[in-house]
Prior knowledge:
Blueprint: E1 2-5, H1 10-20, E2 26-29, H2 46-61, E3 65-74, H3 94-104, E4 114-124, E5 130-141, E6 157-159, E7 164-165, H4 171-177, H5 179-193
The structure holds inosinic acid (IMP).
Amino acid sequence: xxxxxxxxxxxxxxxxxxxxxxxxxxxALESEYGLDLDVEETGTTFxxxxxxxxxxxxxxxxxxxIADDSGLMVxxxxxxxxxxxxxxxxxxxxxxxxxxxxxxxxxVPDDQRGAQFVSVIxxxxxxxxxxTAKGVCRGTILHxxxxxxxxxxxxxxxxxxxxxxxxxxxxxxxxxxxxRGLALREFSRxxxxxxxxxx
Length: 199
Ligand code: IMP
């Protein structure tokens, strides 16, 4: 089955493709279908925004559509930046948003720097049925950036299991433990077991 990813983010495409390919599903960016949607993420939860994005692509294309809405929730900042991760502080680049986060956390001591990445995947199938799946990955926020891989806040998100940041892990290592990897495996389990939302 071919799924259209409701996103312009190539990093997300790469991460989703690596896992979904093994399940016999192909993913393509919406641009490959001639779509250039600007979906306003008006929801206050990852689930709402994930649905809004998948629904917009489904409605515009009639094809099966999949969306990931994700973000970083920092304990000491009461869950911020959360659903606003991609536009945190109005900063325009990943590096600027990460620097802004570190600035906001400069007085937070080491034992209170816990955080989690959250991903909610929504897939709407051609018959209109949908599946939602969520993944959460816990870690801590470092005081400075380490590593050059991945994207977003990866260089400051430290995972104790590996003793490294997400940006220092290989793509396979990140997929094995990340919020998106967990959500996708939950999604694939639901697909295989035929567990749809609201049924
Ligand atoms: P979305 O595209 O609206 O879901 O925004 C997700 C934002 O959350 C991204 O722009 C990143 O800032 C952050 N984010 C989500 N997943 C990751 C990840 O795996 N690594 C680093 N940052 C992430």
